[in-house]
Design a protein that fits this description.
Strands 16-17-15-14-20-21-22 form a 7-stranded mixed beta sheet, sandwiched between helices. It folds into 2 domains: 226 residues, ATPase, nucleotide binding domain (Nucleotidyltransferase, domain 5); 231 residues, ATPase, nucleotide binding domain (Nucleotidyltransferase, domain 5). It contains 13 helices and 22 strands. By secondary structure, the protein is an alpha/beta fold. Helix 11 crosses helix 13.
Amino acid sequence: MPRTDGPKLDGRCLALDLGTSSARALVLSEDASPIPGALARHKISPTYAAAGEATLDLHDYIEGLLGCLDELQQNGQLTDITAIVLSSQWHSIIALDNNGAALTPVIPWVDTRSVDLALDPSFDERAFHARTGAWLHRLYWTRRIPWLRSFTSPASYAGLPDLVLERLTGERVTSVSIASGTGTLNLASGAYDDEALAVAGVAAGQLPPIVATGWTGALSSEYARRWPGLVGVPIHPPTGDGAASNVGTGGYDETTAAVTVGTSAAVRVVHPIEGAPELPWELWRYRVDDQRAVTGMAFSAAGNLHAWLTGVLNLDAPEPTDVEIGSSRVIAIPFHAGTRPPDTVPSGSGVYFGLSFDDTAADLLAASLQGASLEIDRGLRMLDELFGRPLEVVLGGGGIDASAWWRRCLTATFDRPTEVCSEPEVGARGAAAVALGLTPQPGGDHLEPVAAEVDRVKALRPRYETLRGLAVQASTETSIG
């Protein structure tokens, strides 16, 4: 997969990565690679409760992130910084009062609480989806805002990256990339969509203003003494983590699909917003920046599934190395955390079929990773069809970096060569690339599918699809009942 070497960073770059399980600050070198020892992490522990509640403490999150900068400062790493970039989780929301103070914790994507919407009979959700890239799903602000209004009286709303940016610069603004993840953006115009605002019951003035990709802010005077090396350094608008991960992996044009595996997983293609192909109902589309969009499919069970299973089974080895790819009799349907829209399978719907007394913990792990791979493959084949050709594939993210078995399994499931991104910090690298116009290369191994593994996966696929259909039906009927 040839790539042309692009421009390098002018000096060092500070990247802030606002994840669901951690907030991190790291320093990148001129080639957008993390500098060894220049990474600080604040662990995030969401609070879970009944009825689908999952929240993040806003104060703890931001103070923990600022503490990461303090740690880098103490280690002498905040020197020669020429740019500050942010990669952030999409879809978060916080309700604010008249003074801009938070009325609620951070509500991240994993929270499943919602309310029904009273829609005009003439509402056309397919046209809405084509225009915004989103559905009327609890993931998005079109459903979140009416739900928040059902138990509080907000004056305005913001996402986590908007409030982090406000804390650093004194300005509450958002990027076109982050705004697209709210489900209220008109993708073509880059402005808030009138119909989406009407559905949510808000005015554009109650949401953060959208700034252009080239906008920069500066560190407020409050922090000048705390981090003197960052005074005057331009702070760029945040990039949604999915878009950042795609670009950071090396998938930044319409020839290439990037498969990233972190807590969740996704398969996506970056392409120009102008002349974009008509969006199928099953896929979402967000913005990368002023010129580019990203189209794809996301999956709620990936690295979290791997971590849960290795813990539950007390596995010493993180990989099922003794299990041949595609050979497990067990079929795992990885709906443990439900499905992303437009499917409506609720959390708690994960299923294992075909268990017998001679199955081992490694068999269960292999079946789970195989099931997640088959789910990702469904999205990849839709993207192949959308862009009119078998796409090249790059693999990236912490889950990819941690498991050689899973890399081989994905390659066999896709039945095509894959390139592996050598850098696990794809979000940070991608945020720098988007903000500064870089074109990173994967830089890792080239994998070819093994014929025997491909054949075994092909043989189990029909059984998987049949059982998957039954699981979807059973989960939907249960949730309705």
